[in-house]
């Protein structure tokens, strides 16, 4: 079945540091890929998405590129802020089975 | 537009009891999906409803059930609660096909089973 693997957290960075959160996936079909973010006490919000190979999703300074050859969708940001502290979830959607599969989430803590 | 609303926000129950959680989707959204979120497992898919019909189901025991009403509001029920059912339960709505669209999540119901 489909699965998503994310790097273990928490990830602790100083403000203005470079961020990478690794995500790899296994899928039988040709999925769309997503990053969702969950701020404390809230539900998940879509951060960015990519629907085909080599697509780059971007939003709020975050970027991720759909790499079919390495089955990866790593999240990056050039300069993190304290307000980016949250839990980040990588996800894939299988349009055939109409199922969205999430990773276990990676907690990011940004310290001033 | 109002967002996805889940009630109650917190619940404390004891083993063996049953519980009902409610989710009101964004106006116009007909699909509601339910997820269980735990620290070790992340988000696990429970089921998805569309136009009052269960369209998809995850790998949870029959103690977990749900339904959807004609106004698209959805409820999920857990019977004979176990300690391991303690989790944050999230619902997400979308206009139609959840795998084709952006999901809008509620803030969740935090269930504690003692």
If you had to describe this structure to a student in words, what would you say it looks like?
The complex is a heterodimer of chains A (112) and B (114). Chain A is mainly β. Helices cover 0% and strands 53% of the residues of chain A. Chain A is built from no helices and twelve strands. In chain A, strands 2, 5, 6, 10, 11 and 12 form a six-stranded mixed β-sheet that branches. A four-stranded antiparallel β-sheet of chain A has the order 3-9-8-7, with no helix packed on it. Chain A has a two-stranded antiparallel sheet with strand order 1-4. In chain A, a hairpin with a 5-residue loop joins strand 5 and strand 6 (44-50). Chain A is globular, with a radius of gyration of 13 Å. The N and C termini of chain A lie far apart (41 Å). With 114 residues, chain B is an all-beta fold. In chain B, 0% of the residues lie in helices and 53% in strands. Chain B is built from no helices and eleven strands. Chain B has strands at 5-7, 10-13, 19-24, 31-38, 42-50, 53-57, 64-68, 74-78, 87-94, 104-105, 109-113. In chain B, the strands form two sheets. In chain B, strands 2, 4, 5, 6, 9, 10 and 11 form a seven-stranded mixed β-sheet that branches. In chain B, strands 1-3-8-7 form a four-stranded antiparallel β-sheet, with no helix packed on it. In chain B, a hairpin with a 5-residue loop joins strand 7 (64-68) and strand 8 (74-78). Chain B is globular, with a radius of gyration of 13 Å. The N and C termini of chain B lie far apart (37 Å). Classes of the chains: A mainly beta (112), B mainly beta (114).
